[in-house]
From TrEMBL:
The chain crosses the membrane at residues 45-65. Keywords: Fatty acid metabolism, Ligase, Lipid metabolism, Lipid transport, Membrane, Nucleotide-binding, Transmembrane, Transmembrane helix, Transport. Residues 166-192 are annotated as: Disordered. The gene is SLC27A3. GO terms for molecular function: long-chain fatty acid-CoA ligase activity; nucleotide binding. PROSITE patterns: AMP_BINDING. The keyword Transmembrane applies. Residues 166-175 have a biased composition (Gly residues). This is long-chain-fatty-acid--CoA ligase. Residues 606-682 form the AMP-binding enzyme C-terminal domain. It comes from Pan troglodytes (Chimpanzee).
């Protein structure tokens, strides 16, 4: 009997289970970060469109009588059009989910949402180019075959015996009559359950125990085809994947692997040198260690890609990856939170399904070519970029690293029509000298988040005509917004139509106490137009918050209870937004001690803990400061020396660069005699941030990180001027 087989009800019964889990009922809610559950049958689509148009007719007399409502109502046609698009998108995803639920579990179409979508595309558009990476091109059919090979290699590590011809020999090690479900249950994460049998230990990392069904395999890889094939293969094999940020080393890396309960680590050969000090700890954790490519590898690390290439490319049974519940965890994406070290956000099969609708919501079509230069260990790159592209069956140009100087030439060469950005990328582009390639391009749409209004205007004016679609969302969140009107500076709309389909609220928030403001009854209060408010969204079976791998304390503060009525539960985004009198949402700030730099969240507590490990430092206060011409806030650390030590800038730089990812390195240092605190002995972060880093106004010694030199240097007036002029790279 095969090793990796299901234990749940027959496939016909599973169809009913998954229909219930998907919430195909009235009253569902959500978006690509909520739930594609509020759907309508196909025969009702026309009547729904008519119902959506009815309010417009009813409001016409009101428009004539009360013209002062025009600022809100002038956008009603756009709101209606987007609502219809969202409902059509949900209907399409619902149809796919029902088809997969009814499919033969022995076939690839009966697998998880990622597996069956790729199998579907390989049948419908086999020759269409899915991926372009450098000089390499892969069709959807090739992507399906490559991921099948990867799935078979991982199943062999589980103990599955495919036989000499690559077919299931029917022999395994699970024991007679036992039917193991690789993806069964969230409780398996990190459990370390033993799995008897197989040659996985010999092929995958020396003395490590064999992989067990439902295990988590961490990927520490740059963006490239191999990342995708291994991710897809793990999904097909019913194994969970953990996307590890490539800059993590030492303590933060080990923390991430422990928190998600990783049983194996696949790393890029080019990372082996920098990971050498971590190898003893990784081996002590009992991890399978694979390298994704050839080379001279340390003992116990084998070439996974060689094992993959030795497998046949036939499909694997769908039941291996089909979840017991659509809300089961299938993926971990690490996100920095206010608690310090990265947290492993649980990504469900439902969220994978939702993200297939992202680009359809954005108005992207299957003949578009999408340019993606974002890290795949981020939700923006992997789920919105890759899975979103698969949702419409389009082509993605994947870059391992963004190059502002090469961008427009790439767009010309590959006839790119859609660019997925974070705000920093757009700023890099507008700061480039003019080139011939930036004219005559085919880019019609830029989709992303974090674009500042000033950069937005410069970007469109220089590279237009093109449309910018700014979005907002969180990896672990159940709410997201899309600025489908293209209003500059906005991240979405709070129209009654949008909030009916994708519910959320802005509530009053006290930045001093860090808590929502409640009325005498204990309920939260909605904000007025122009008033910053905390963005919250209702939690339900259709739009859940799954939290993080580990203890429940990691999600502390993420859920608010009794928000508007007793017993209700809302997800707390931790972000302050403003809704203006026209219903447009604009990002205001992040609550707590977390700030954003280079498209990444930086937790001040994590940075401070690294600094405090240095014996010559007594106190550290880390905060974010605004730098002219840069998105987000750059890290700055106020330091107090421990007597009788002196400041060792070389040791400090070495320590920081070894223990923190580059985006978390403080760009500025401020040496003080003592740290400013409040009357309750809390560090004064807001005041310090407002004081900035101008050497002409501060008497304390200041230092700036010069990345070209690789050192902290005194922040002189000349260097300060060079920084403001854009001549000093931080």
């Amino acid at each position: 009997m095969g090793v990796c087989q299901r234990t749940r009800a027959p496939w016909k019964e599973r169809s009913q289970l998954e229909r219930a889990a998907l919430g195909f009922r009235k009253g569902g809610s959500g978006m690509f970060a909520n739930g594609w559950n509020q759907t309508v049958p196909m025969e009702e689509a026309g009547s729904m469109a008519a119902l959506l148009l009815l309010p417009l007719l009813l409001l016409l007399p009101l428009l004539l009588l009360k013209l002062h409502l025009w600022p809100q109502l002038r956008w009603l046609p756009a709101d209606l059009a987007f609502a219809v698009r969202a409902l059509c998108c949900k209907r399409a995803l619902r149809a796919r989910a029902l088809a997969a639920a009814a499919a033969d579990p022995e076939g690839p179409e009966g697998g998880c949402s990622l597996a069956w979508r790729l199998a579907e595309l390989a049948q419908q558009r086999p020759a269409h180019t899915f991926l372009i990476h450098g000089s390499r091109r892969f069709s959807y059919s090739e992507a399906e075959r490559e991921s099948n090979r990867a799935a078979r290699a991982f199943l062999r590590a589980l103990g599955w015996d495919w036989g000499p011809d690559g077919g299931d020999s029917g022999e395994g090690s699970a024991g007679e009559g036992e039917r193991a479900a690789p993806g069964a249950g969230d409780a398996a994460a990190g459990s370390g359950a033993e799995f008897a049998g197989g040659d996985g230990a010999a092929r995958g990392g020396g003395a490590a125990a064999p992989l067990s069904p439902g295990a988590t395999v961490a990927l520490l890889l740059p963006a490239g085809p191999e990342f995708l094939w291994l991710w897809f293969g793990l999904a097909k094999a019913g194994l969970r994947t953990a996307f590890v940020p490539t800059a993590l080393r030492r303590g933060p890396l080990l923390h991430c692997l422990r928190s998600c309960g990783a049983g194996a680590l696949v790393l890029a050969p080019e990372f082996l040198e920098s990971l050498e000090p971590d190898l003893p700890a990784l081996r002590a954790m009992g991890l399978h260690l694979w390298a994704a490519g050839p080379g001279t590898h340390p003992a116990g690390i084998s070439d996974l890609l060689a094992e993959v290439s030795a497998e046949v490319d036939g499909p694997v049974p769908g039941y291996l990856s089909s979840p017991q519940s659509i809300t089961d965890t299938c993926l971990y994406i690490f996100t920095s939170g206010t608690t310090g070290l990265p947290k492993a956000a649980r990504i469900s099969h439902l969220k994978i399904l939702q993200c297939q609708g992202f680009y359809q919501l954005c108005g992207v079509h299957q003949e578009d070519v999408i340019y993606l230069a974002l890290p795949l260990y981020h939700m923006s790159g992997s789920l919105l970029g890759i899975v979103g592209c698969m949702g419409i069956g389009a082509t993605v140009v994947l870059k391992s690293k963004f190059s502002a100087g090469q961008f427009w030439e790439d767009c010309q060469q590959h006839r790119v029509t859609v660019f997925q950005y974070i705000g920093e990328l757009c700023r890099y582009l507008v700061n480039q000298p003019p080139s011939k390639a930036e004219r005559g391009h085919k880019v019609r749409l830029a989709v992303g988040s974090g674009l500042r209004p000033d950069t937005w205007e410069r970007f469109v004016r220089r590279f237009g005509p093109l449309q910018v679609l700014e979005t907002y969302g969180l990896t672990e969140g159940n709410v997201a917004t899309i600025n489908y009107t293209g209003q500059r500076g906005a991240v979405g709309r709070a129209s009654w139509l949008y909030k009916h389909i994708f519910p959320f609220s802005l509530i009053r928030y006290d930045v001093t106490t860090g808590e929502p403001i409640r009325d005498p009854r204990g309920h939260c209060m909605a904000t007025s137009p122009g008033e910053p408010g905390l963005l919250v969204a209702p939690v339900s079976q259709q739009s859940p918050f799954l939290g993080y791998a580990g203890g429940p304390e990691l999600a502390q503060g993420k859920l608010l209870k009794d928000v508007f009525r007793p017993g209700d539960v809302f997800f707390n985004t931790g972000d302050l937004l403003v809704c203006d009198d026209q219903g447009f949402l604009r990002f205001h700030d992040r609550t707590g001690d977390t700030f954003r730099w280079k498209g990444e969240n930086v937790a001040t507590t994590e940075v401070a803990e690294v600094f405090e490990a240095l014996d010559f430092l007594q106190e550290v206060n880390v905060y974010g400061v605004t730098v002219p011409g840069h998105e987000g806030r750059a890290g700055m650390a106020a330091l107090v020396l421990r007597s009788p030590h002196s400041l060792d800038l070389m040791q400090l730089y070495t320590h920081v660069s070894e223990n923190l990812p580059p985006y978390a390195w403080p760009r500025f240092l401020r040496l003080q005699e003592s740290l400013a605190t409040t009357e309750t002995f809390k560090q004064q972060k807001v005041r310090m941030a407002n004081e900035g880093f101008d050497p002409s106004t501060l008497s304390d010694p200041l230092y700036v990180l010069d990345q070209a030199v690789g050192a902290y240097l005194p922040l002189t007036t000349a260097r300060y001027s060079a920084l403001l002029a854009g001549n000093l790279r931080i």
